[in-house]
Design goal:
38% of the residues lie in helices and 17% in strands. The longest helix is centred in the last third of the chain and has 31 residues. It starts with 20 loop residues before the first helix and ends with a strand. The strands form two sheets. Strands 1-2 form a two-stranded antiparallel ribbon. By secondary structure, the chain is α+β, with helices and mostly antiparallel strands.
Length: 120
Amino acid sequence: TDLATIGDPTLLTKAMRDAEPTEIARVFGHEFTKELFDLPTKEWAGPVKSGFGFHLVYIVQLIPGSAPSLTEVRKAVEGEWLAEQRKIANQRFFKILQDRYTVEIYDDGSYGNDEKAKLQ
């Protein structure tokens, strides 16, 4: 049977490649996603119920998750820490600049004592 000719039309994607469980759950729900782990690979299985109805599912490959290595975690944490330190340094710098200057804007669009400089 040509699978493209059976079932109801839908806006759902026909296939999800390299999909993480969280991505599948976002689309089809947590119960649907949990059921996938009990299905065989490389054969059609189902029906599996989601909020959209019932689905036939073909799982090409199931790759078990793994904990990231300490090196991967360290690199991610260092990147986030550096970004936060950069943000703090920028805030301090802008505060210093703000404290050094006073800007006055008048109703006529001029600023300070310079009549040549008008805001357009």
